[in-house]
Design brief:
The protein is of the alpha/beta class. The protein is built from 5 helices and 6 strands, in the order βαβαββαααββ. The longest helix has 13 residues. The model has no long low-confidence stretch (mean pLDDT about 95).
């Protein structure tokens, strides 16, 4: 079995935009991770960053079902004794509106240097405005 290496210059990368208003958090994250990873392309390679760019707008208006807004917890450990900080979805969405979506997408990508490099191609904005209009992003339906 040979490892496939796709020349990055031969594979064009597109820009997509997702409007997350009223959409489910997990469904938006899954679609974004799929496109960021490059699984929508026939030249998909596990070991390369061949995915497209994704711009997500209205990240603060993403929907969660049931009591997740109050019950879902996000943990951050500072590294010191007693340094475990815990936030609910509501509090995290108030302080940093794009973070719940960013955490969900990052959890669906590889956990290493490739995953961190892929996350650089994901642009998340709380409002409807974004500075990537010059790239002519295509609308991606979720």
């Amino acid at each position: 079995m040979k490892t496939i290496f796709v020349n990055e210059s031969a594979q064009p990368r597109k820009w997509y935009i997702i409007d997350a208003e009223g959409k489910s958090l997990g469904r938006v994250a899954a679609k974004a991770a799929y496109v960021l990873r490059g699984k929508n392309k026939p030249s998909y390679a596990v070991n390369q960053e061949m995915g497209d760019f994704v711009v997500i707008i209205n990240a603060d208006k993403v929907a969660v079902t049931g009591n997740k807004a109050k019950d879902k917890l996000y943990h951050n450990y500072t590294g010191f004794v007693g340094g475990l900080k815990t936030f609910t979805y509501e509090k995290l969405n108030e302080r940093h509106p794009g973070d719940p979506l960013k955490i969900a997408i990052a959890g669906m990508l590889p956990h290493g240097r490739l995953g961190r490099k892929i996350m650089d191609n994901c642009k998340i904005y709380a409002g409807a405005e974004h500075p990537h209009a010059a790239q002519n992003p295509q609308a991606l339906e979720v």
